[in-house]
Design goal:
The structure is a single chain. About 40% of the residues lie in helices and about 20% in strands. Helix 4 links the parallel strand 4 and strand 5. It is built from five helices and five strands; from the N terminus they run E-H-E-H-E-H-E-H-E-H. It has a five-stranded parallel beta sheet with strand order 2-1-3-4-5, sandwiched between helices. By secondary structure, the chain is an alpha/beta fold.
Length: about 140
């Protein structure tokens, strides 16, 4: 569901044991300043990410990681979204992502990988493209 102003509704999540949150809070503030509706929440299980996406009717999910736990969480989130018929939700990841894992993440269906030092404007541009694409409307 599009929020007011036809901007995407974005769910930003981090694992509940993830103590690094400066990057994701900076992203949340920039997205809000750009006009996106942002929901920011910790989670324990990937299934909770899917449940939050359904409950909040989001267009985009952003997941942040400072460990390799994305190797377990990303496939489970993507499988959960597919199981709910929500393949149109864009999923991006950020944080400390190993370069050698980027291609694997994209094969999982991740639309963008934004590691430490990434240009936040590239994320904003990617999400904005979803707003203007023909499949963006639900």
């Amino acid at each position: 569901m599009k929020s007011s102003g036809n901007k995407s509704k974005v769910l930003l999540v981090r694992h509940w044991m993830e103590c690094h949150e400066r990057g994701v809070t900076t992203v949340a503030m920039r997205l809000r300043d750009t006009g996106f509706e942002v929901i920011y929440a910790p989670y324990r299980l990937p299934e909770e990410v899917v449940a939050m996406a359904v409950a909040e009717d989001v267009d985009v999910i952003g997941m942040t990681f400072s460990t390799g736990v994305y190797e377990v969480h990303v496939p489970r989130v993507m499988k959960g979204l597919k199981g709910k018929g929500l393949k149109n939700i864009m999923v991006v990841v950020g944080g400390l992502i190993f370069d050698e894992d980027i291609e694997w993440l994209k094969k999982q269906g991740i639309a963008g990988v934004f590691g430490a030092g990434s240009d936040i404007n590239e994320l904003i541009e990617l999400i904005s493209k979803k707003d203007t694409s023909p499949v963006a409307s639900r």
